[in-house]
Design goal:
single chain, 364 residues, alpha+beta, 7-stranded mixed β-sheet, 10 helices, 12 strands, globular
């Protein structure tokens, strides 16, 4: 996690992953999710927090899911089904099901079929939010496969030269196995940062870095300032001179592959989201051991890059999250006190046991 977005120590309440997973599971069950689906949804959220991806963990997303279920935007018991398939392609109708539940099941289908065909792609239409999408490609790693996921829906990002939003951040994620090195895991938004980072900064009362947002008329905001009352997100690159057409293009292709291809979704989706997951069997292309050994050599080549002045080391995608996982599994997950206050109110309202704290530097 980038230091700027971390919860300050004085505002942090430490919660152990098992305790957080138990409470989140109970909240999903209280919303009407079947037991196994509640456990699956909770795992996707908590893994995000363990890896330091707090934008898509419990802090921002759980309260949204609670509200969306109560407003019947999310169906906790969807009758999802395969509507079209060939040997290595599948299309699923999600019946308003939460992506945290249906995307893992779709990835299991992709992995099983890729073991036979070499690769498999699954599109998912009429779904809902999928959380940290790196979770699904990472499911392929134990199978010596490369995983991929994209998701799309909504509109908060302006196209290059645009004055009104037409696309969402539409992230892409890949996971690639290695041997002794931690795996390569890349999860990137097509905007400068994930939209949920703005919620983190608002909670932390920090200014928004330059180049992330535009004014309501599309003019890029190229200085650090507080979050304006009206704004749109800029594509990755901020301006044409800095390459915003690249972020715009990546967002558009994500919308095509996971939205238009799945069920025609684009634009003002009103909570409706579409997804794509894929698995590529390494064995179908090359010798697995050779590939994983070469991946080790490649990843070491990246992380052993001499650091620039003012920096201690170089990371490759996934390494920082791997190290964060090791620390948080031992020390606990630092939740902002405002988040813990929300948990207390939610568990009290739903007549659940309160969230167990490991320690706190503040009065929650």
């Amino acid at each position: 996690m980038i230091e700027y977005y971390r919860v300050p120590a004085e505002d942090a309440v430490l919660v152990m992953p098992g305790d957080l997973r138990r409470t989140v599971t109970q909240i999903f069950e209280g919303l009407g999710f079947p037991e196994n689906d509640a456990k699956l949804a909770a795992d996707v959220l908590v893994v995000a927090d363990i890896r330091g991806v707090e934008t898509h963990g419990v802090s921002n997303m759980l309260r949204y899911y609670v509200d969306a279920v109560r407003r019947e935007i999310i169906n906790p018991k969807p009758n999802w089904k395969i509507v079209r398939e060939k040997a290595s392609t599948v299309n699923i109708e999600c019946d308003r099901g939460l992506g945290l539940v249906i995307c893992p099941k779709a990835m299991e289908i992709a992995i099983e079929r890729a073991s036979q065909t070499g690769l498999c792609t699954v599109t998912l239409g009429n779904g809902r939010h999928a959380g940290m999408i790196a979770y699904y490609p990472m499911m392929a790693l134990p199978h010596d496969m490369i995983g991929y996921c994209i998701t799309s829906g909504g509109k908060v990002m302006v196209p290059t030269f645009g004055a009104e939003p037409r696309l969402a951040p539409n992230p892409h994620a890949w996971a690639v196995p290695a041997d002794k090195e931690p795996p390569f895991v890349l999860d990137i938004s097509c905007t400068g940062v994930a939209a949920n980072k703005l919620a983190l900064l608002k909670r932390l009362k920090k200014p928004i870095p330059a180049g992330l947002l535009s004014e309501s008329d599309g003019r890029p905001i190229m200085e650090s300032r507080s979050l304006p009352d009206e704004w749109h997100m800029l594509p990755l690159g901020s301006t044409p001179e800095l390459g915003s057409h690249k972020g715009y293009g990546f967002a558009a292709i994500a919308q095509i592959l996971s939205g238009v291809l799945a069920d025609g979704t684009f634009g003002d989706s009103r909570g409706r989201m579409s997804h794509l997951v894929a698995a590529y069997s390494v064995e179908a292309f090359t010798d697995v051991e050779r590939f994983k050994t070469d991946m080790d050599r490649f990843l070491r080549y990246l992380r052993e890059t001499p650091p620039a002045p003012g920096h201690d080391r170089v990371y490759y995608p996934g390494l920082m999250e791997h190290e964060e996982t090791e620390m948080r599994m031992t020390n606990g997950i630092p939740l902002h006190r405002e988040v813990v206050t929300w948990f207390d109110s939610a568990t009290e309202e739903m007549h659940l046991e309160p969230l167990v704290r490991k320690s706190s530097n503040v009065t929650a």
